[in-house]
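Late entry, evening session. Most of the bench is empty. Finally got around to the prediction I had been postponing all week. Sequence below, unchanged from the version circulated by S.P.
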Amino acid sequence: MTALVALCACGGGGNAAGVASAMPAANPATPPSSALPAGGKPDGWKLVWADEFDQNGLPDASKWAYDTAYNRSGWFNHELQYYAAGRLENSRVENGKLLITARKEALSTMADYGGQQYSSARLITRGLASWTYGYIEVRAKLSCGVGSWPAIWMLGSKGRWPDDGEIDIMEHVGNNPGQILGSIYTAAQNWPAGTPNTSSTTVADACSAFHNYQLTWNAERVVIGVDNRNYIQLINPGDGDYRKWPFSNPQYLLLNLAIGGDLGGKVDDSALPQQMEVEYVRVYQP
């Protein structure tokens, strides 16, 4: 797993602050138990934000923006895609699902085209919604084509990476179907520094069935799971060191399907187009 862990990051940060859902930032008085907590939505937490994808067409512009910032210069991790904005061929809602589609095509007429031979989409809530603490559940069916790299993740709204934190709720690559990766990155724990906090779990039918990818985040810990089974966490050390715990500040959500790159690997063009399907995104808070 060591070689794989060193590459597990969709990261690269953002530039604009999101709209924070205000909750008190607190450090635990005493260190919590290191045991993984039970999975699933915490009792009593209420729905505060959701997209059920019940309106056909482009994604709801009041909830989702497009990240296209690095199309001209090239995306992080040597990824090969051009991220298109407002293009039904790459992101659309249809029959109650969001479809993010990667295609083998060169969108050379686009003003910010950077020479890519693949198109896809990267949807973000930055500037529209962000949260400090919460239970986030995304029900999705993943792509399995070799070279595909779908992700459900979060970045700190302050825009500095890795200082402001990254939470990878789900990453999957087509060259290793069924292996789901979860990662929690800080300035103290990240892959460039050789100190990543990454783990994996197996979901054998991740590409043929929908599963619930889940984050439970409070003042004590960040926990990632699938289908109510948690498998990785980061506990707040409670010492006030921002390098170890930036997660008392808002993060925004990203959904994307990358192609190739350090983790995605060699691309099988014959497997394209590829899709990540999302049935819903739900955010709960106490």
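Two things to note before I forget:
Residues 1-9, 12-26 have pLDDT under 50 and may be disordered.
The first strand starts at residue 20 and ends at 21.
Will write this up properly tomorrow.
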